[in-house]
Automatic annotation (TrEMBL):
Similarity annotation: Belongs to the BMP lipoprotein family.
Classification via SUPFAM superfamilies: Periplasmic binding protein-like I
Coiled coil stretches, renumbered: none
Record keyword rRNA-binding present: no
Pfam families tied to this protein: Bmp
Source organism of the structure: Bdellovibrio bacteriovorus (strain ATCC 15356 / DSM 50701 / NCIMB 9529 / HD100)
The protein's name in its UniProt record: ABC-type transport system substrate-binding protein
Main location: membrane
Transmembrane segments: none
KW Cytoplasm (keyword) present: no
InterPro entries: BMP_lipoprotein, Peripla_BP_I, PnrA-like
Length: 339
């Protein structure tokens, strides 16, 4: 074979490789060429925050495995990046784009209007548009249950709440928690603090720990935390002082067994999975989808990591409370509806 022939063979091989790479970049993989393309936009907490973003990511990954979709995810470095991330997915003609968290409301609203043929979903925000599904949770109902458990577990007659960013959504958690604790013990003392007033509050475990330690110093022996990645600070404080903490969003009992009394779980993973599945089946609908106690969208958690912390009497009592909420016999106060 001549040198010219060798060069021609080599150049042909390289050209084929280059074309293959271009094709891969354009559709992901050959096997996904005709599959549903889903883009997931996480906030700064990222897929490893052991909380809200982790739950959304897990739901999307389950859909990728079960439904053979093409999944791409990105983590926003800050709030200003969110709109561009949604637009980037839309320009690549993704079929469904999911935004995780209330901070993505305006970005989804704007980009969805610019790309009316693409379907969007947003968690914890209500965007009214013909191509947007709003996935909303009744946090106050689940918080009422863990508030009741906190009051039952408290030996000091004092419990606490540490919120992340001071916004109506987190106030909704707090209001439900306080009502649940007072339903069990009307005379219980409740201390409430927030990590901050900006998005950084979700990623400041040091400040969360400081707040929790201050609450413990004042007598709180059970602290409910709703602060994203900052939750770990409260867990550390509870472990250090041998008190109880209550997790949020996903089942966080496993993080510190024996320390985390329970978790107020939001079925974010289920909401994400169901939205992807229905979109793939051609059954996507816009509008609000609400998840509460009635459809198991929120709940308290009980598993091998905390089963020794919740007695049979505590479980019986909280299950009775749950049934009364579902039946409408207990009206849980809602911060969104307060006068």
């Amino acid at each position: 074979m001549t040198a010219l022939q060798e060069w021609f063979k080599w150049s042909t091989k390289m050209a084929k490789s280059f074309l293959t790479m271009l094709l891969f970049l354009s559709v992901g993989t050959f096997s996904h060429a005709n599959s549903l393309k889903v883009g997931l936009v996480l906030d700064k907490g990222g897929k490893d925050d052991k909380s809200f973003n982790s739950a959304a990511y897990q739901g999307a990954k389950k859909a990728e495995q079960d439904l053979k979709i093409e999944l791409k995810y990105v983590e926003a470095t800050d709030t200003n990046a969110i709109e561009n991330l949604h637009r980037a997915f839309a320009r690549k003609n993704f079929d469904l784009i999911i935004g995780v968290g209330f901070a993505q409301q305006e970005a989804v609203k704007k980009v969805a209007a610019q790309f009316p043929k693409i379907k969007f979903a947003v968690i914890d925000s209500d965007v009214k548009a013909p191509n947007v599904r709003s996935l909303l949770f009744e946090e106050h109902e689940g918080s009422f249950l863990v508030g009741a458990l906190a009051a039952m577990a408290s030996k000091s007659n004092s419990v606490g709440f540490v919120g992340g960013m001071d916004i109506p959504l987190i106030r909704r958690f707090s209001m439900g928690y306080v009502a649940g604790a007072k339903y069990v013990n009307p005379k219980i003392n409740i201390t409430e603090n927030y990590v901050g007033v900006t998005g950084e509050a979700w990623n400041n475990p040091a400040k969360a720990k400081e707040l929790a330690l201050a609450q413990i110093a004042k007598g709180s022996d059970v602290i409910f935390v709703a602060a994203g990645a900052s939750n770990t600070g409260v867990f550390d404080a509870a472990e250090e002082k041998k008190k109880f903490a209550i997790g949020v969003d996903s089942n966080q009992n496993w993080i510190k067994p024996g320390v985390i009394l329970t978790s107020m779980m939001k079925a974010v993973d289920v909401a994400v999975y169901d939205t992807i599945k229905e979109t793939q089946a051609g059954k996507f609908t816009a509008g609000e989808i609400r998840y509460g106690l009635k459809n198991q969208g929120v709940n308290y958690t009980l598993d091998k990591h905390n089963e020794k912390l919740i007695t049979a009497d505590m479980k019986k009592k909280v299950e009775e409370i749950k049934k009364k909420i579902i039946a409408g016999q207990i009206q849980v106060p809602d911060y969104y509806k307060k006068k």
